[in-house]
Amino acid sequence: MINVDPPTGNFPASGGNSTHNIVSESDSRLAFKVKSSNNDHYRVRPVYGFIDAKGKAKLDINRLPGPAKEDKIVIQYAEVPAEEIDATAPFKAGAQQGEIIVKIVAA
């Protein structure tokens, strides 16, 4: 299980940046993948990464100028062994265990 802090993102339609923490409540190491419902106006970094057991990872969201609207960021996650070095591998293998949705609003 993961959570995102803060759980939503609010941006001016003219563009802006927001930093969030992806927080793991799992006793296992996790890999994550970040997807957006609007790739024209949002950039996320990193797209793939790891979170140690009970750890956290930083997620930067950049909103480019565009029309005001609601979108979402979806963070998928999967348990991985400590020796895994490729964060994309579990998703290529279809190993997704869960996901969390972050509502993002440009006004």
TrEMBL record:
Domain spans labelled MSP: 1-107
PROSITE patterns: MSP (PS50202)
Top-rank lineage group of the source organism: Eukaryota
Region annotation Disordered: where it falls in the sequence: 1-22
Protein name: MSP domain-containing protein
Highest classification ranks of the organism: Eukaryota, Metazoa, Ecdysozoa, Nematoda, Chromadorea
